[in-house]
Amino acid sequence: MKSLDTPYVLAPEEIEFYQKNRFIKLKNVFDADTLAQYNAVISRQVEKMNTVTTALDERDTYGKAFLQLFNLWRENEAVKEFVFSKRLAKIAADLMQVDGVRMYHDQALFKEGGGGITPWHADQYYWPLSSDKTITAWIPLQPVPLDMGPLEFSAGSHQIVEGRELSIGDASEKLIAEKLRVTDFEHVIEPFDLGEVSFHSGWVFHRAGANITDHVRKVMTVIYMDKDMVLQQPINKNQENDWHTWCPGATVGEVINTELNPVMY
């Protein structure tokens, strides 16, 4: 569809805002028809791939946060069309001020009705990547009011080193919240309109509230990295696992250039 590849022109002040805060929310990235089409496609693929059978109230905090399915683009050509949107990829490159971006991986994050919080965390704890030139597009497939658990950000918190060593869970929610409470970083909690997409860097701290509605909060995400990103030696077991899962065959100290990491723009 045309809207998937039509350039989205960023204003200089939007790029400046992202560089300062390491997140931004952009309105009207996709139109209603495009989102309706891919909502149906992605929802069917999530249903097909989902293997979670444990009741919501029997799961741990992470399990209650969302159903999480990875690399849908490898399983479904229609999903791949959406994930490989040049419109999205160019926004990612322009915000990071890099010449081009590669795929790290995609993931669907479906927070079920009654689903719990997504604890405070920084994504790049999990990634064996040598620079902070990483960005995630968080794409709601429908409007997300506050009671559905939209993504929240601590603006500019990429400057904080404390908390980067924490995996997502009860400890990260408690300890990062305590740290952020004594800083001047603005806590941004806002609903998402239909067609609104956020972009955030790997080291900015973020969370999401519980979904207290009866409806699933359906979100698709695409994680991009600088096309010249170099694989670093993993510093924890999660990074070791990510290396072999999302960058199989990549070599430490060299640019990540595998069939799972194509240049998107």
From TrEMBL:
The lineage of its organism: Bacteria, Pseudomonadati, Bacteroidota, Cytophagia, Cytophagales. Keywords: Dioxygenase, Oxidoreductase. Pfam families: PhyH. It comes from the Bacteria. GO terms for molecular function: dioxygenase activity. This is Phytanoyl-CoA dioxygenase family protein.
